[in-house]
């Protein structure tokens, strides 16, 4: 069995793969890194049922929270009894990276692009509704071209609440009407329809120009909330980063054998 870890700005997501199949996933909040001992206890607890069945041979990770990396390394040794390999530090995502400064791009975006390329073939856009909404383009020549970054749904919720006197924090849910007639439904409609329109608008621009005929793949914590309101989001890949990490682990094993 191998373990994969995705440290995003909201969640740490852990996935276990047996024979390339995802057999289990759990999440803990990223904000806990201030108290790594607590994060370790949480991960240990949630990983226990999987580790009882089978030991972990390898851990592949991807992080966009650099201050978490050293804790991740020690947590891996103590829970999984093996060193973890972190994207960008211990291995490179095997993709031609055309970002102006290649090291500047988030490793999560590269892993998403790699995973989608392996699953769906060249010429695609990955949309990830995480803390940020990211759009990542893989060309017909299988190169990572870059993309776009916009604020995610939680950031929209929090900034409306934090930067105004009267707006409360409202839990997001499927909006029931376009024209909100109370504060909570106005905020829900604004954020959910707004994010769907932002997404469709950007995809339309991409499809008209550089990305004519490209496939669109969507992932991330808020993907299912937005999908019903979008024209272009049809193909959902949950846990795309974890799948990408598992595919990279498998490819490294093959290249070692060659
Ligand atoms: N407990 C929570 N705290 C914050 N956001 C949450 C929580 N549960 C679900 N979410 C939603 O998940 C989104 C983040 O998705 P995720 O893909 O896990 O992000 P990341 O990969 O950036 O950590 C947020 O925008 C928010 O709407
Ligand atoms: C854009 C991101 C914040 C997205 O992170 P996430 O929503 O997955 O937490 C992350 O990929 C990042 O910090 N990128 C570095 C800058 C860049 O990609 O250009
Ligand atoms: K994201």
From TrEMBL:
GO molecular function, one term: pantothenate kinase activity
Binding site for ATP: 6-13, 131
Known pathway: Cofactor biosynthesis; coenzyme A biosynthesis; CoA from (R)-pantothenate: step 1/5
GO biological process assignments: coenzyme A biosynthetic process
This protein's UniProt keywords: ATP-binding, Coenzyme A biosynthesis, Cytoplasm, Kinase, Metal-binding, Nucleotide-binding, Potassium, Transferase
Transmembrane segments: none
Cofactor(s), by name: NH4(+); K(+)
Active-site residues, record numbering mapped to chain: 108
GO cellular component: cytoplasm
Binding residue positions for K(+): 128
InterPro entries linked to this entry: ATPase_NBD, Type_III_PanK
Entry EC number(s): 2.7.1.33
UniProt catalytic activity: (R)-pantothenate + ATP = (R)-4'-phosphopantothenate + ADP + H(+)
Cofactor remark from the record: A monovalent cation. Ammonium or potassium.
Record localization: Cytoplasm
NCBIfam families reported in the protein's UniProt record: baf (TIGR00671)
Family of this protein: Belongs to the type III pantothenate kinase family.
Assembly behavior: Homodimer.
Main function: Catalyzes the phosphorylation of pantothenate (Pan), the first step in CoA biosynthesis.
Name of the molecule in the record: Type III pantothenate kinase
């Amino acid at each position: 069995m191998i373990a994969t870890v995705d440290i995003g700005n909201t969640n740490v997501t852990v996935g276990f793969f047996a024979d390339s199949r995802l057999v289990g996933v759990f999440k803990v909040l990223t904000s806990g890194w201030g108290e790594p001992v607590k994060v370790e206890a949480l991960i240990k607890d949630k990983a226990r049922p999987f580790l009882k069945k089978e030991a972990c041979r390898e851990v592949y990770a991807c992080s966009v929270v650099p201050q978490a990396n050293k804790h991740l390394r020690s947590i891996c040794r103590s829970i999984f009894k093996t060193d973890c390999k972190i994207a960008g530090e211990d291995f490179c995502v095997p993709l031609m990276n055309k970002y102006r400064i290649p090291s500047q791009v988030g490793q999560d975006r590269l892993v998403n692009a790699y995973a989608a390329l392996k699953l769906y073939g060249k010429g695609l856009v990955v949309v990830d509704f995480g803390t940020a909404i990211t759009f990542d383009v893989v060309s017909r020549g299988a190169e990572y071209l870059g993309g776009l970054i916009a604020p995610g749904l939680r950031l929209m919720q929090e900034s409306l609440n934090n930067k105004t006197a009267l707006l409360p924090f409202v839990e997001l849910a499927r909006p029931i009407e376009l024209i909100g007639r109370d504060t909570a439904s106005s905020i829900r409609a604004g954020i959910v329809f707004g994010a769907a329109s932002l997404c469709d608008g950007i995809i339309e621009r991409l499809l008209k120009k550089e990305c004519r005929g490209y496939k669109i793949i969507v992932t991330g914590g808020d993907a299912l909330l937005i999908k019903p309101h979008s024209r272009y989001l049809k193909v959902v890949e949950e846990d795309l980063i974890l799948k990408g990490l598992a595919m990279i682990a498998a490819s490294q094993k093959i290249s070692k054998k060659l």
